[in-house]
Batch of 2 targets.
Target 1
Amino acid sequence: MILRRQTRKIHVGNVAVGGGSPISVQSMTNTDTRDVDSTLAQIERLQDAGCEIVRVAVLDQDAALAIAAIREQICIPLIADIHFDHRLAVAAMENGAQGIRINPGNLGGPEKLARVVAAAKTHKVPIRVGVNSGSIEKDLLKKHGYPTPENPTALIESALRNVRLLEKQGFEEIKISIKSSDTLTTISGYQQLSRLTDYPLHLGVTEAGGLIAGTVKSSVALGILLHQGIGDTFRISLTRDPVEEIRVGFELLRSLKIRERGPELISCPTCGRTQIDLFSIAEEVERYVQTMEKPIKVAVMGCVVNGPGEAKEADIGLAGGNGVGIIFKKGKLYKKVKEDVLLETFLAELKKLEETK
Ligand code: SF4
């Protein structure tokens, strides 16, 4: 049982973050935000995968304007990611952004920040103070050194300094992220930060890498933190299609038994007993279950000798034999079919289960 750290609750559109709300899974588009059609197409795929909050980069006024057209056609809250230019932050909110991610210290001074805060108050938009190892102020680096697992102070001080800039303007609808590309610095940084503030925390490892390295780094860092009750929302950053970030995110929550979405797929690694092309069958089944919503357990096993027994908790599974395959339910034989129709028969059974269960 994970005991979650008590944090304040804020709202990004209709999604509550912090204060015991479900831990939300976010992603960020990698399209040109000004290209409304491409951005919408990507957000629709993200929504289908379960994305709950989406962020878009706002690099100029045209991108800020595009937010209005994008917002009209999506169901999840949209956050504008802005650097340096306070006018873009204001324009993004005027055009319907439901959250902004900024670094208050780099917007050009208190007056410009005040305009951003005024717009955030008017439009009821929360602000994420997002600090990265690479964006820490020079004086803090000089004082505390570059963040390391043993000493992540500069990262924390930078975040809290930026939070104070907002608080000075009477603004507290805040969440905080302190991202590092180093797994251990991420862990120790968020652990320390969580003892110093009760604002909700957005977790992430930045520049984590491709599918395998990025998944492992993010899962280790975020897995440890979430297990300690730290973190209210997160993004898994991958150098990949952002839809993969959402899939990894929900698998992470599932493995910690925090949240479930869609079926869990169990598949064996294969061994010398395997007599069918299990890899391609597993790939097809994986593709299919990603379209399903019911939280059932599905098994794809290499042999009839051990498969059903090894996967007896699965609601439904298949196991390969010599020219045949069996479909089993809860570890018990349900149907025996020829190998060449095993996949299609199994997918039809999954469809039935999705419709009836
Ligand atoms: S289920 Fe069968 S084929 Fe797969 S790893 Fe276990 S023994 Fe090997």
Target 2
Amino acid sequence: MGSVVVKQLTKNFSGVDVLKNIELDIHEGEFFALLGPSGCGKTTTMRCIAGFEAPSSGEIRIGEKLVNDISPHRRNCGMVFQSYALFPHMNVFDNIAYSLNIKHLRDSNMFKKLGVYIRMLNSKLIKYPKEIEEKVNSILEYVELKEHARKLTGELSGGQQQRVALARALVMEPQVLLMDEPLSNLDQKLRHSMRNTIRRIQQELKITTIFVTHDQEEAMSMADRVAVMNGGEILQIGTPTDLYSNPKTPFIADFVGTSNILSGKVTKKANNLTCVQVGDYEIQSAMEVEQEDVQLVIRPENLIVKDKSESTIDNYFNGIVEVATYLGSTVRYDVRAGDHNLLVDTVFESGDKIFEKDSEIKVVVDPERVLLL
Ligand SMILES: Nc1ncnc2c1ncn2[C@@H]1O[C@H](COP(=O)(O)OP(=O)(O)OP(=O)(O)O)[C@@H](O)[C@H]1O
Ligand SMILES: [Mg+2]
């Protein structure tokens, strides 16, 4: 059972609460991302789960077992870090086999042989038991590194090194895989392909995975569920689509995807619509709220650009195109609407009109697409 349950976890460093009442309920086989800005407490949460950091208070259960007093190497968590932390003097195969072999020697009461093993590794004379050979070979296939097995890790690209680190964690068959910003040292193209590799392996092995990142695109594209953190707290947990369409706060709306966030005041409620004064504009939302001061949150793809002369439309801002960026299948407009800057993403099909810089336009929004937070 590889579930991870965290209850009322707090961590205090020198009088500062860096984790405040963290609650997590991560299901077996789930790919769960901890997402948040730098310093919000992602790594500390992960280190508490792995056992490298002792909680100030709270409970951590792995596979339903309380692990607070259990040392890291007995928690059965595999770790992958941003820096790959590989052994540079060993080849790929030996790197992956290392912990497995130490465990084998320990389990078979061959402590005395450990020294012999290390010397053999250094002199490259090592002969592994068949079972270890097979396990390492099979994991090498998973991470597509079979043909690089005998290379030193320094002879590999960044992506290949990260796959060695992943293989080294997976070969131990951990209950839980913990990954802390594993892709941030890679260039963008490699990051994209490693996302797919990690996701594929995670799904094939059905291993419970906690993935720490400050990159919202990474979290949203890989995880089954995402916890958004800020200032040592978890603000919201949900599926990527949940978080994107129903962010609880403007911070989350801004952090998860791109949003237009405008301040407004509720003026009246009629016909199931809430009217909000935003500068010179009155914008309607289908959302009901209690408070008078609100933040309007509108995703760029929910704004529609129309020619200024179109008369039969309501719920719009008058605007002037400041920048029109053609991106192939979409056009992004930076629009000045009175005191506000609006970002608009429109789908572009061949033959569509692109409004050029300084065009006078209307930016229309469906009240259903205006969130009031
Ligand atoms: N050993 C420590 N002693 C004192 N303060 C610490 C220690 N480790 C972390 N902190 C503080 O705890 C807070 C959370 O740090 P943490 O490393 O968990 O953030 P993070 O979300 O992983 O950030 P990043 O995205 O930059 O890696 C920070 O303010 C950090 O300075
Ligand atoms: Mg960190």
